[in-house]
Amino acid sequence: MQAVKPAIDLEQFFHQLARASRRVLMLDYDGTLAPFQLHPEQARPYPGVCERLDAIMQDPHTRVVIISGRWTKDLLPLLPLRKPPEIWGSHGWEQLRSDGEYTLSRLDEHALQGLVTADDWVTAVEARGGRYERKPASLAIHWRGLPANQVADIRRLVFENWMDLGLHQHLVWHDFDGGIELRAPGRNKGDAVKAVLEENAGACAAYLGDDTTDEDAFKAIKGRGLGVLVRPAYRPSAAEVWLRPPQELLDFLSRWQTVCEAGA
């Protein structure tokens, strides 16, 4: 495992973790726990991830939370864990607790109408070789695997409709690895991190993520826990540690598991 900044000492972090009475492990899914796939429904966790999470979730002192841009209903089938995990989906708009309690935050009426308006033209994305994905608070346009000319064509289509239909007044444009997402403003992964940390004041915490959509989470945890960038190649980030998947990710989870089992 490799620290980006020399001031960050993973040995010290795990020493603090072992002494903590409460621990919080927050994880993004796509690109972090699972490699990207052309078809997102095929994005299964790296081998060994579920086994380690199962073991960590047995620890009564650790709260494991998946914080993802995915709709919770689409993510659950991809996580074959022994007990249901807590999931914050749709960039923090949804919360599905491990006991099954589900909450969807209320969307602004203008943003909701913007998403409805987008439904009138988004099928044109498929005609250009792309794919669209409806979520409770956003619309994602995917082009992973397409040649540059098709990507440019889809991007132009989305931008023209975003501007011409006035969607830019009520929806926020977010680029991500493999596409664009038009999202209702007001919530992001950082809000989910803040909410979890407020419920676990004083806990030793970490957030693991890979994409630019995880930067809000890295900023939210700074000074209150450890931000960990998980991706094959480094990029500038507010995270304090960089791990290459899958091996360094598995090593990190294994060390967390060891701490949990030592305190059992």
What does this structure look like?
The protein has 264 residues and is an alpha/beta fold. The protein folds into two domains: 2-102 and 187-262, 3-Layer(aba) Sandwich (Rossmann fold), CATH 3.40.50; 109-183, Alpha-Beta Plaits, CATH 3.30.70. Helix content is 33%, strand content 22%. The protein has nine helices and 13 strands. It has helices spanning 10-19, 49-56, 72-75, 109-118, 124-127, 148-164, 189-199, 215-221, 247-262; strands at 2-3, 23-27, 62-67, 86-89, 94-96, 102-104, 131-135, 138-142, 172-176, 179-183, 204-209, 226-230, 241-243. A nine-stranded mixed sheet has the order 1-13-12-11-2-3-4-5-6, sandwiched between helices. It has a four-stranded antiparallel sheet with strand order 7-8-10-9, covered by helices on one side. β2 (23-27), α2 and β3 (62-67) form a beta-alpha-beta unit. α2 (49-56) packs parallel to α9 (247-262) and α7 (189-199) packs parallel to α8 (215-221). The protein starts with a strand and ends with a helix. The model is unreliable at 2-7 (pLDDT under 50).
